[in-house]
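Input:
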Amino acid sequence: MTTVKTGQVPLAHDSEMARATPRKASMIGVNSRKLWLTVLGWGVAILIFFPIFWMIVTSFKTEAEAIADPSLIFAPTLENYVEVQLRADYFKFAMNSVVVAFGSTLLALLLAIPAAYSMAFLPTKRTKGTLLWMLSTKMLPPVGVLVPIYLLFRDTGLLDTRTGLIIVYTLMNLPIVVWMLYTFFKDLPKDILEAGRMDGASTFQEVWYLLLPLTLPGIASTGLLSVILSWNEAFWSLNLTSSQAAPLTAYIASFSSPEGLFWAKLSAASTMAIAPILVFGWLTQKQMVRGLTFGAVK
Amino acid sequence: MATLQLKQVVKQFDDTRVIKGVDLDVNDKEFVVFVGPSGCGKSTLLRMIAGLESTSGGDILIDGQRMNDVGPAERGLAMVFQSYALYPHMTVEDNMGFSLKLAGASKEERRQKVLEAARILQLEPLLERKPKALSGGQRQRVAIGRAIVRNPSIFLFDEPLSNLDAALRVQMRIELARLHDELDATMIYVTHDQIEAMTMADKIVVLQGGVVEQVGSPMELYHHPCNRFVAGFIGSPKMNFIDVEVISASADGVDVRLPGGGQCQVPVDGRDLSPGARLELGVRPEHLLLDDRGPLLGEVQVIERLGGSTSLYLQMGETSVILVTDGDVISQVRDTVHFGFESGRAHLFDSEGLALPSLNRHPLADICRQDNRSAPTAAASH
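Output:
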């Protein structure tokens, strides 16, 4: 008995040694791959963030420094911010942006939730086709419908109004909002809603008590995306607003034209315009990523 | 009082007819089990009764009232889903009280009814928990509790135990049977597991391809299957089928020639048969007997020893049969064994698969689960 055991020990030991070497090698492989991926990740992040960083840096320079050879050594100044605020009322534009971005998102969600509900839970033969058609409208260049929409707005008195902008942004984001909500809703087990129906829930109660609370992460990330898209939208805001309803994108544009290009002031205006949404995006990024990858891994 | 009647009920999805005219009567306080292979339409039929699927044709009557166009909640039924379908964001108490909340019941009344159901199901310590903090069995009990709270006229169960492990399934099966006794309610239960069907049902409905093959008590289906499908579906391991030839036939019995040349007389009504006709003889594995003088001969292919019993897989020419015998049997693979059966336990099926009517009704054929508890003396006297 004992002889057999002692004979086995070196054997087992040998095989462990034999296994350890390739494992070590593969660990090194994994580590170097991790290192490269980290470097790549940081590289891409810096590349994307660099223009924003440079814009913020420029906003603290004087106009002369702004057009001189790029340098990170300078005496920071707030004069651009003061001047920008003197030339235009930042808060008015910012308020317009907030109202329009959140208003259009709310309206889009109100319209998209029932649409996505019926497509996810009561599909017909044409549901897939309808969804694709809705998304295909996003492929149309907006300038293609600029003239008709401008004329419609002019005739209905919607030019330069927040209401007009909310309507346009809602329609602009609706396809993507419906599409996203549809995918979130489809992930919800149908049984839960049927159990609600057996318990006596009307369609509204089903949505209110069950669907909305259970898909809240998805709805939140859809809403966040819609807010960001609306906030950043420039084409329609530049063409359909002038003074009353102009959001921050129009505010930035107003610094680029009249007296030539003043990079430092333009940078200060841009920094102020993107600051709220940057902070908002930073605070909600976890929710965004969670929502956008929701259902991707089960 | 809750009865259900289905009259020529049809369900059609586009061009496909999945329920092809089902007639069924479910009596008050009866435990009815729909059983059949996957895709036979049993779940669809249950969902139609629940009102979750529309009815393409025929009538669904609950307590005599036509319910085809009545919404699921107004039918007065409650359903337990295979996936439990608990509301994950609500506590156990809120899950169970949700229907009452929707009905506008006061908080007090809700709490009282939930506590009552929780007591029956021993869920009291779990009322504050969310479903994700419960085990499979506890979730199942909450789903049942949610149904109880509604005080429905009929309980519907859609394969409620199929997500549980084997041990828990046995336990829940017993609990459900106990619950049926305690609540004295009408229950309709869908399963593909014939053990659940046999142990729980007062009445089994065997479905295949959207058609009811047979309705009867578990023992009736076991002892008097009306066709080859039911005979094969009910009983485990499934019934053996052996090709035989009619030697002579009359209203008093049918003489058949067995493979290997042996003969036997089966007590079924064979008045329409003529000598030379080909039939199938059906004998359950547990009714085959090892017997040195038996008329059948087979070679042992596989042996499965379960302790209490042993299954021998035998090859007889081109026919394979299973024989269930004593746990201590001494046999080995490739042994050749003689075996036979009591002719009174055998069934004969014609070329269309229909069973020839048996001349003797089995004494337990009409007994159901409820009789087991209400009339033990009647059962014992047989």
